[in-house]
Input
Amino acid sequence: MKKYLLPQKGRFYKANLHCHTTLSDGNLTPEQVKEEYKSQGYSVVAFTDHEIMVPHPELLDDEFLPLTGIELAIHEHRADGKRHQEKDFHICAIALEPDNLNQPCFHRTKYIWGNASKQLDKIRYDENEPDFERTYDEECINQMIRTCREKGFFVIYCHPTWSFERYPDYIRYQNFHAMEIYNNASYKVDGCAEYNPRVYEDFLFAGQRVFAVAADDNHNSFPKGTAEWDSGGGFIMIRAEKLEYRTITKALEQGHFYASFGPEIHTLWFEDGKIHVECSEVVRIICSKGCRRPDKRHGQNGQTITEASFDVRPGDNWVRITVMDAKGRCADTNAYFTDELFAE
Output
């Protein structure tokens, strides 16, 4: 029986799930962000300004859906004063329901900075809850993730390379929905090696069933047209039946999307022990697995390819597809676990 891993019904909606505006440290207003992303074919943008969660229903139209979100951070403070070696932990939390407007993990007097401190009148929070104190340690970080999930947010672990977090740090984090396999601003503007397939697979090997997203994290600090313009580089393609808030966030929860900073994946399905992919023109298609049995297909003699099939066995644990174009840009599927693929 053919199992569509990206749903057969519906259509793809291009989305950026990590975005900054003039409400925090971005350089475009929310209205300008909408204009920029619509001009590049996007249908969905999650507005995730630093430490301030502001809904933007005024931006909604038949072709554009603003999601309500926030970026939260916990900063390490080193006693030895080596600030350039201090680490950060960042998540983007996206409200699953359009009427979920209370800011999670709020503190009345700390953590809000920059332009966000001028927007306090826009913040809603639960006045019956105590202030959320932040410390850079495993307990507090996992409590922040749990709190956001319990309060109805889709939680994304952000830019581990920029954050200077390494395996012993991030592998302790639990219960987030997804991690950034690619962060465009970190890669383009900051020069970080922020294409993170190995980090994603570290979580998979640790038994975490999480998704992979690519996002811009745009601040638009450089002129449009320069190599450092950070809108339109990292995105996900969400497969859903309509452009409606809860329909889109349910698709996020179900993993009905793929991540990309270039190529497109058109169809993905599993049938008779094989995973099949059809995509835009690429030079390489890779099948990664939860064991030492990867596989690949190459375009030969300078030719491109647009499809591939790979054997999958129950003992592979999980499987995912990466396609790479001639410019070295990749699109990545989420991981699919063999206990579910082979289930009747």
Q: What stands out?
A: The mean pLDDT is 97. The longest strand covers residues 65-75. The helical segments are 30-39, 138-150, 167-170, 184-188, 197-205, 245-254, 338-341. The two ends are 9 Å apart (CA to CA).
